[in-house]
């Protein structure tokens, strides 16, 4: 988006420079003679010195009307739409939220038709802020998440910081401290070329304020003071009295919690003075309430009473029921200490009535917050799925391209190999036939060998049986007759045989010799069979 779209939310308090910028812009626009670049430069100055009080805001909106007319005559549609979006935000700042939303919705089709992602992000951001203020929390968060999704998809370098800031603030309102801190820290971690705008120091200071608020809710006062010191440094450098008054107020609150009375009173006083000077009504009510309550705690009701009375008047004027309720409660405490029971009871009754009414609203708000958290989780999942799909599709496309190239090489190689395979096909078939014939021959030979093995096994079994018979004959049949012959011969040798017994001995020898001859004959038959 062009330079004239510096965000109107940057509330800088350079009154003299702001007036000069307004006068210069008016002088340039009224004659309708300035060039487009000159008008852009003057509008840029007006954004830098962001009109904040009611009179200057009215004048600023009138100048934007003239700027729109100028760019319309120049047929500069982009610049005309930028002025229109700036006017929408000015109307919102003027307290006309519904009118601003209606005008924004009327111009959104033109913004989409132009196709400028920066303008669309700005429109989404403004829509999120306005709808959140009007109580449509779901749409407010959805618009900001869509703005962030456009930024991530298009990678435009504008509006990242303000988008993270607005998202962080909305998460903070939902008491979702984890996501609030994440958004704030992402905003601070942006590269330099995403944060090269005049409004950046202001928004960075607001982010430090947001991180301090997170730490306050976590009761981490030390870290909160560190963030507040960084915010204050930027706010004093840019003369951002709006942000500085809040930083001083939060610092006073921490010192109050830490029991440092003098420092707390000093910072409360500085914040109150700035808010009175700039007529920051909401902030004024907050500081008056806290300071009045602090004086009650310190046992100084006389100092507390005028602060609480003034705070109640402002709270009724701005119509913030929660603050009116708190002030009635504090005033009832004051009147009780002062011994004015009727007034104390009156304030207490007002407090209880408002509290009961607000309790119902709080229940509705809690239900709405739960619904929003559900919607947020769903939106975040969808956004993450979209981002992952985009990344994965690109990676898949690159991978597919590489695979296609590889496939071409593979196909070429396969065709070459097919040709080689076809050339060797006949040779392989001939070798297969040879192998088949060889296999049949081997099968036949194996069968013959098996037959021979069976015959040989039977022959060996028969021979083994004959050898057993031979061994048995040798062990039993041969040894008997031979032993008897040897015994008889031994008797003859030692002359123990009588002459008359000699024929008998010879008969026995002959019989044993014949028996031995039969056995030897039988053994020869067995041996001949084994051959």
Task: Provide the descriptors you would attach to this structure in a database record.
531 residues, mainly alpha, Serine Threonine Protein Phosphatase 5, Tetratricopeptide repeat, 84% helix
Please explain how this structure is put together.
InterPro entries: Bac_ResReg_Asp_Phosphatase, HisK_dim/P_sf, TPR-like_helical_dom_sf, TPR_rpt. One of its GO terms (molecular function) is phosphorelay sensor kinase activity. The protein is an all-alpha fold. The chain has a domain at 1-9 and 33-156: Serine Threonine Protein Phosphatase 5, Tetratricopeptide repeat (Alpha Horseshoe), CATH 1.25.40.10. The chain is 84% helix and 0% strand. The protein is built from 20 helices and no strands. It has helices at 15-29, 36-48, 54-73, 77-93, 97-114, 117-133, 137-154, 160-173, 177-188, 200-217, 221-238, 241-257, 261-278, 281-297, 301-318, 321-338, 341-423, 425-477, 479-493, 502-530. α7 (137-154) packs parallel to α17 and α14 (281-297) runs antiparallel to α15 (301-318). 34% of the residues are buried. Mean pLDDT is 77; it is low at 1-36 and 42-52.
